[in-house]
Structures are given as C-alpha cells and as structure tokens.
Amino acid sequence: MSKPVILCVDDEPDILNTLKMQLKNEFKDDYFYELAESGDEALDLLEEFPTEDEVIVVVSDWLMPGIKGDELLIKIHQKYPKIIKVMLTGQADAEAVQRAVQAADLHCCLYKPWNSKELIETIKSGLAKL
Q: Of 15, 24, 48, 73, which cross-links 10 as Cys (Cβ 3.0–4.6 Å)?
C-alpha cells in the first residue's frame, strides 16, 4: 500500500517549497508531498491517483490565476468529499472563505504569512477527523 498524499496548491513556487519543507520536517516520510502551481494542475494531479483515498489533505492558496482557491476546493469536495481542505491565503475575502466552508467543508483558513506551528496543528486536527 502506498503512502497517503498531502497536496499543496499555490501559484508561487517559493511558497510551495516552504510548505513542503515545513510538512516534511514534521511528518517526515509518513506522506508523499505533491505540489501544483494552479487549480487546473491540482485537478489533473488528483485524477492521476488510482484510488480516491490516496490524497488526504489539500492546502490551497485562494488568489491564483484561473480557478480561485474556494472554487478549486468546492470542485475537489464534490468529487472527493473525504479530503481535508485547508485554504492558505493573504487575500481571500470573507465571502470566499464562507463559500468554501459551506460548499467544500473547509477545515480551516490560515492567513499568510502563516506560522509553521499553526499549519502543522491545522493539518493534525484535520487528520484526526479521518
């Protein structure tokens, strides 16, 4: 059986690399860490996994070209309702966050610049719901 996957989505490669480093520092090799630079790339990646239970967490930025984070998380929730969804943003408006809470079962919204400890605690509390 392969390891579960945490998928991070952000249009800024530096942020993706920081997220991966912080997650890997905490969770070591318990998970695979996938990175996507757009919502469309994230949706394509999700399609590549053989079972819908492989990706267990998605951490997504809100303001990205193309699909915004709340729209992405809603699409993910419609197809993969068990995935824990976290929005990480510096610019989401309250309506977008509320939409994600209602239509995507958003677990948490963190604001940039985030704190590594807060990110890890958020992921762990999401994983505890599985």
A: 15
Identify the burial level of 25 via C-beta atoms within 10 angstroms of its C-beta, where 0-12 means exposed, 13-18 middle and 19 or more buried: exposed
Q: Is 6 helix (H, G, I), strand (E, B) or coil?
A: strand
Enter the tokens of residue 115: 């704190």
Residue 33 phi/psi, 5-degree rounding, is: -120, 115
CATH 3.40.50.2300 is held by the domain 5-127: yes
pTM check: above 0.90? yes
Domain-by-domain residue ranges, the chain? 5-127
- 3-state secondary structure (DSSP) of residue 115: coil
Assign 92 a pLDDT band (cuts: 50, 70, 90). confident
Nearest C-alpha neighbor of 124 from the set 79, 76, 59: 59
Separation of alpha carbons 70 and 24, rounded Å = 25
Give the model's confidence band at 1: pLDDT under 50 very low, under 70 low, under 90 confident, else very high: low
Q: Quick one: pLDDT at residue 60?
A: 98
57 phi, psi to nearest 5 deg = -140, 140
